[in-house]
Amino acid sequence: MVEHDGHVGKLLDKLDELGITDNTIVIFAGDNGNEEMLLNRGTAGFFEGSYFTGMEGSLRTPCITRWPGHVAEGVVSNEIMHVSDWFTTLLAMTGLEVPEDRVIDGKDQTAFLFGEVEKSSRDGFIYWNGEQIYGVKWQNFKLVLVQQKYMTDPALPLAFPHIVNLMTDPKEREPYNPVYLHSWTLAHFGRLLAEGLGALQGDALRIAESFIARQASWEEQVRRELGDRAGVEDDYGVLRAVDYLSLLLCLRPLDELDGTPIATMTMNVEGERASLDPYPFDVDELGVSVPVRTLAATSFDDDEAYRSALRAAPVRTLSWTLSRPRR
Predict the structure, then answer these.
(1) Nearest CA to 55 among 145, 148, 163, 164?
(2) 117 contacts 72 by C-beta, under 8 angstroms
(3) Three-class SS of residue 40?
(4) N or C: lower Cβ tally within 10 Å for the chain?
């Protein structure tokens, strides 16, 4: 690291010697997260994972930018800037046009780097490993579709995606937060996937389209089946109730599910009785009570706004008797 620092210093001194410092954009950044191989193994600090995974230790790298008189000096930010944004941003900084004959992933971050605005032009991105979508990041939340901690670990597609809050779980250890399930973030994840559809092809396109379609279909089904019969207003509280039921099912040991993926289960609601098909429990009937907070909004700008609305929301209880389906 000392040698590397010395080399960078020599390059900067050379710019001064040539008299071109004020007309040169300098970008110092890592191209990926830390190495996993023992001889070169690094650290991601608070975060976990190595490169060639979807962990935050793979996605998040440091970046320092200098352009005297243009890039704001002494500013430290935790905003998201994707590597593809440099293409678009450097074109804008140098007065060149962005090509219009192809899909351009990068966003122009000139105003952000110049200190004209505090927020980045990007609030999230789809992250990949090769041609496979590993997940979606929005602000400090991640929708994890494939679980892999280190480069040498197997990549495990998840039947039920994890929603991780990096502010409270930087190591990404908890697949769910039983107090704050953060399902409201799906609106943002779905938007980012929809925005990226133009650049997707093949299997990745089908994954994104399937996720968006399932999200819309699931919300419509829940509102239709539970909205009137369970006495719950047509609002976000309905979705939160089913979040808890989904969590209950997902926490069951896999051998109790007879190898049946959660995604293939259907729930038929008749008043206060519901049948699951296939039915994953040993007992014939199971009582479930779900505390529901009724929220007026379906999407929030950040976690604090969500928590404030949740604290102020009225609480009611939904109760079902889960039973085997009639044959």
Answers:
(1) 148
(2) no
(3) helix
(4) C
The answer to whether the CB of 296 falls within 8 A of the CB of 308 is no
Domain boundaries, the chain: 2-122, 234-327
Q: What's the predicted TM-score (pTM) here?
A: 0.67
Radius of gyration of the chain, Cα coordinates, nearest whole angstrom: 24
- Using one digit for the tens of pLDDT, what is the confidence trace for 65-101? 999 999 999 999 999 999 999 999 999 999 999 998 8
Looking at residue 125, its pLDDT comes to 95
290 sits in which H/E element = strand 285-293
Structure tokens at 325: 């389906």
DSSP H stretches of helix in the chain: 2-18, 56-59, 85-93, 110-113, 186-195, 202-226, 236-250, 303-312
Please give the Cα distance from 188 to 191 (Å, whole number).
Answer: 5
Contact between 270 and 320 under an 8 Å Cβ cutoff? The reply is no
Strand partners, 141: 138, 165
Checking if the pLDDT of 105 tops 70, the result is yes
